[in-house]
Amino acid sequence: MTPPILITGAGQRIGLALAQHFIAQGEAVIITYRTRHEAVDLLEQQGATCLYADFSSDQGISTFITLLKAHTESLKAIIHNASSWDCEANNPQFEQLFDNMMRIHAKAPYLVNLHCADLLMRYHAESNQPADIIHLTDYVVETGSPKHLAYAASKAALDNLTKSFSAKFAPQIKVNAIAPSLIIFNQHDDEQYRAKTLKKSLMGIEPGCQEIINSIDLLLNSHYITGRALPVDGGRHLK
Predict the structure, then answer these.
(1) What is residue 176's three-state secondary structure?
(2) Catalytic (active-site) positions
(3) What angle do CA 102, 104, 108 make, to 5 degrees?
(4) Are 116 and 68 in contact (CB under 8 A)?
């Protein structure tokens, strides 16, 4: 079996769909979770290694890196999916909000990439294939967001790290980003919100997690794409 693919924040939604996809493909998978949903138990039953991680503190990031290295000596890919959709309207502690967004979306990937590059390099040395780092950013990297200022800024930082790490690690490790807009609604989203959101893109659909799976498969299968952000936004930039 090849070295594992690490997916952060894979206890639900897109991360969960990615983990299930790679398990079905026969890949070894390591996931992180902060809340132990029932899906995490199921992933363990299917063979995934499931590690608790709290990226909202520096100590939590450091503890996870140590734990990861105790479980594997090499990695085929790191997919940074862990995210927090927090905003100024819901969190008036602006200093804390900004620091938390930056820590989860930029500092955690930054530190994991630096401290775990040796695991990816080992995969490259053994397989003679490039390893991968993929950052999940956001459509708002292009536009900013008046309702999610700190969130948008942190995802923009992650987008910039994509460029810097791709130059630092090439050609042994490819580093790319995926920048989605709407992929799947939350269960609590009402019909009015759903209708309003669907009108924001040219395609006007809820595409589902398969669109992200397809995009990540494209990047993993490429031997040439690096330092790029793949937009998965249904043409939203043209509306």
Answers:
(1) strand
(2) 151
(3) 100
(4) yes
